[in-house]
């Protein structure tokens, strides 16, 4: 469903310069797990919301995630040539176009959100809450803040708390947003939104630690990128601080904690989200 | 009013990495005419709207304008070292931080818009229309599309229509958005919004042509940047196509056209906007 909707995210009727459109679509359609849009849809589903109405928000979060990867890969940032086994955006379209494509994807995300109201009748009040939360979780207080802290900290992170700050904002914030946005679409109560946040913070951290573990013991073919890159870049990670075994235990503990948060909330059929938590813990790429 | 509000745009209480906050504030507070926020406030005012309620949207458009300058100045784009007589963002904070500061300012703009509802009681429906329009006018179909077309066209623009496309999207779109957004805040009718769009398109093009004229015959000290940069970069401009005299006449014609559009609409006191149109035509920097 997400792939089919992403293909149509930039309608042919829109007057967009050809190379800009190609550059945006290149990264948007470059694969990936589509984890964040799936979390939007799953959160809407477990609360009895409409998947169709949640789709514009699902697309929005994938656009934000994609823009962040395009800008992250730039020479001035991580300077990566490959992502998911394909050339990065700036290697294909040049740096200037990659910067503009990222800017356009971020802007387009906010357009997409508004369509949950205009196209699917979700009350304007709720859609405005989603807009506000995306701006918080993806901005200076959220994801971009996490990236800045990561960059600034590359010189030397010495405490696990500093690493936790970076993980929370670089990774968990968009995951928490996705879950809450799905909740808003379904008209979630405050208590349900809190449970979704708690679930998201726990699986977000578990997701990041699992990433760090896979970078050490994963299979390059399955990952689509070279392993041991953190070690080469002298990146400080959870396994670096507490070892692989304790990191694996932490992933398990966080997954249990996430599930418990969900089970405490008044959600009739939380199965889909519980399955996703297990899938993330067990993934090998 | 705008300067005072901009200083408080990133509250001290927000947990934002220090250098990111500094980098954002550096460009946000680097001066400039504040034309776009003033247009938001003036459009709200002539239609009897509240300036306080319009301010979050005024700040939003200045954030979008600022982010576009920060990214435009990057080495991969225009590679400018100075803007308004000051070092550009990446010359002070480095390229990576300039990219992130731009991303954060764009994201923060959408947060700011939502506060017109949350903080000032403008109906959610109207604020959502402003959100949607910002995403259209600032995105791939708007400003970013204009920048991409400008970049792609640098190899050789041969028609005035190609130049008009670039001017419309690079410059007029944000001006049209500013006026319409002020209109939405004040509860403008469809006819009034159309008049504001027409006014904005005309003064936007006049503004750009005046910029091109000043680049040829202006005073470096007043402009805060070197003149004849378009000629040096072999940039195609209106004066290049039709000469300075015809360009000056075009600015006058567009200003009259802008005022007439406004006078045809049912607006009781359009004075403030009419004054702004004259100011823009007569400016020397």
Any idea what the shape of chain A is? Answer: globular
Order of helices and strands of chain A: HHHHEEHHHHHHHHHHH
Question: In total, how many domains does the architecture of chain A comprise?
Answer: 1
CATH class category name of chain A? Mainly Alpha
Q: How many helix segments of chain A?
A: 15
Largest sheet strand order of chain A: 1-2
Instruction: Please bin the fraction of helical residues of chain A.
Output: over 70%
Terminus-to-terminus distance of chain A: 21 Å
* Mean of residue pLDDT values of chain A: 93
Q: How many beta-strand runs of chain A?
A: 2
The CATH homologous superfamily of chain A corresponds to Farnesyl Diphosphate Synthase
The largest sheet of chain A, given as strand count, sense and whether it forms a barrel, is: 2 strands, antiparallel
CATH architecture identity of chain A: Orthogonal Bundle
Family (chains A, B): Belongs to the FPP/GGPP synthase family.
Cofactor (chains A, B): Mg(2+)
InterPro entries (chains A, B): Isoprenoid_synthase_dom_sf, Polyprenyl_synt, Polyprenyl_synt_CS, Prenyl_diphosphate_synthase
Protein name (chains A, B): Polyprenyl synthetase family protein
